[in-house]
Amino acid sequence: MWTHTALASEAAPANGEGWRVVEHQYTVSTRKLVSTRDEQEVLEAILEETKPAFPANTAHLHYLLKTPFRYPPSPFGSRFRRPQEGEGVFYCAEAVRTGLAEFSYWRRHFFEASPGTPLPDAHESLTVFSVAWRTPSHLDLTRPPLNKDRAQWTHPDDYTATRALAAEARRAGIQAIRYESVRDPQRGANLVLLAPAVFTQRNLLPSKPGISTWAPAKATASGPAGMSPLPSRPHPPPDPSPIGFRSARGARPGPGEFHSDVLAHPDNGN
Questions:
Q1: What are 15's strand-pairing partners?
Q2: In the prediction, which pLDDT does 232 show?
Q3: For residue 207, what are the CA distances in angstroms to 82, 102, 217, 227, 231?
Q4: Of 135, 136, 181, which is closest to residue 162 (Cα–Cα)?
Q5: Is 268 exposed, middle or buried (0-12, 13-18, 19+ CB in 10 A)?
Q6: Pairing state of beta strands 176-180 and 90-93?
Q7: Per-residue 3-state assignment (H helix, E strand, C coil) for the chain
Q8: What is the pLDDT of residues 111-135, one digit of tens each?
């Protein structure tokens, strides 16, 4: 097991950008429950009161940056966060492709675990955005000597080792961990940001957020240069370029069935 002392000796400064894929943020889902805009604002205010408070050290950040630090973990935890562990984490990917692979895997996992839930019969809008980060202390699990334990870091289901590593990393003051994506067939890199202090900008990176769409048979996204800008108010998403992941069967994707529709995409191969 890696101790916090050993990890501190392997830590190094780093900076970069990270991509995150989340459910569409610019269509108000509660509007269909009420009759007027005023009623909708009251409902949103009531819902906000039921949510945990944002940590004080995230007050200056865009809500998409600080929200992952707001909520307690699920009873099952995540790859770098133990169940019921108090401190939040921000997961992102170094490439849009990898972020879509991660999102697609977990969306598929949701439907497979909910056999009574009907599959969507239309594309689902997603929000894709990027952030800038910098830290004096990060770990790279894809490089020596930490990559000698690659089998533990990349186990598809057992997160015991990665959770223990993250706990020791926090003890060492490490703020970010770079690791190999288990869900991306091309094994792109993911990032787990352990502290909101790593964000170098309080807002999302300019000109880069965009809209993607996801469906059981296909998830599509245009590249950074052609991505449709996020709207200032809700409206139907544009038709994106057919770049992303598709199930070979055209139904519920099976393990390993995601593949790129356009191999020349600038994010492919990372």
A1: 134
A2: 35
A3: 35, 23, 29, 9, 12
A4: 181
A5: middle
A6: unpaired
A7: CCCHHHHHHHCEEEEEEEEEEEECCCCCHHHHHCCCHHHHHHHHHHHHHHCCCCCHHHCCCCHHHHHHHCCCCCCCCECCECCCCCCCCEEEECCHHHHHHHHHHHHHHHHHHCCCCCCCCCCEEEEEEEEEEEEEEEEECCCCCHHHHHHHHCCCCCCHHHHHHHHHHHHCCCCEEEEECCCCCCCCEEEEECCHHHECCCCCCCCCCEEEEEECCEEECCCCCCCCCCCCCCCCCCCCCCCEEECCCCCCCCCCCCECCCCCCCCCCC
A8: 888 888 877 776 777 888 999 999 9
pTM, rounded to two decimals? 0.75
Work out the mean pLDDT of the chain and round it to a whole number: 77
Cα–Cα distance, 36 to 51 (Å, whole number): 23
Q: What pLDDT was estimated at residue 181?
A: 97
Task: Tell me the mean pLDDT in the region 218-228.
Answer: 40
The Cα 191–Cα 120 span in angstroms is 30
Q: Which residue has the higher pLDDT, 95 or 232?
A: 95
Distance CA(253)–CA(72), nearest Å, equals: 30
Nearest by Cα to 223 from 192, 265, 173, 262: 265
Q: What token pair was written down for 103?
A: 């999102």
Where exactly are the structural domains of the chain? 4-246
